[in-house]
Amino acid sequence: IPMDQAIRLYRERAKALGYITSNYKGPEQMQWSSQPAPKTSQPSSTDSTDGNLNELHITVRCCSHLKSRANHLQPHPYVVYKFFDFAD
């Protein structure tokens, strides 16, 4: 790999790791609702050590007061999650 490409890739990796570590909360810091979360959404100790830090599990437990665009259609619920709401 050319040196300039290696340096660029290293900087991108360091930046991404900074995002991950600044936003990562361990199991003791997470606040779960009174109902237990599904097993797939609970972080395990192997998640941070085996390199699989790019997984996100989201569970929508409840929706209320959904409105459809037309009276004869069912509402189409969806979830939007925004990553990294700060400047680089």
UniProtKB/TrEMBL annotation:
<dbReference type="GO" id="GO:1905515">
    <property type="term" value="P:non-motile cilium assembly"/>
</dbReference>
<dbReference type="InterPro" id="IPR035892">
    <property type="entry name" value="C2_domain_sf"/>
</dbReference>
<dbReference type="InterPro" id="IPR031139">
    <property type="entry name" value="RPGRIP1_fam"/>
</dbReference>
<feature type="region of interest" description="Disordered">
    <location>
        <begin position="26"/>
        <end position="52"/>
    </location>
</feature>
<dbReference type="GO" id="GO:0046548">
    <property type="term" value="P:retinal rod cell development"/>
</dbReference>
<dbReference type="GO" id="GO:0031870">
    <property type="term" value="F:thromboxane A2 receptor binding"/>
</dbReference>
<protein>
    <submittedName>
        <fullName>RPGRIP1-like protein</fullName>
    </submittedName>
</protein>
<dbReference type="GO" id="GO:0032391">
    <property type="term" value="C:photoreceptor connecting cilium"/>
</dbReference>
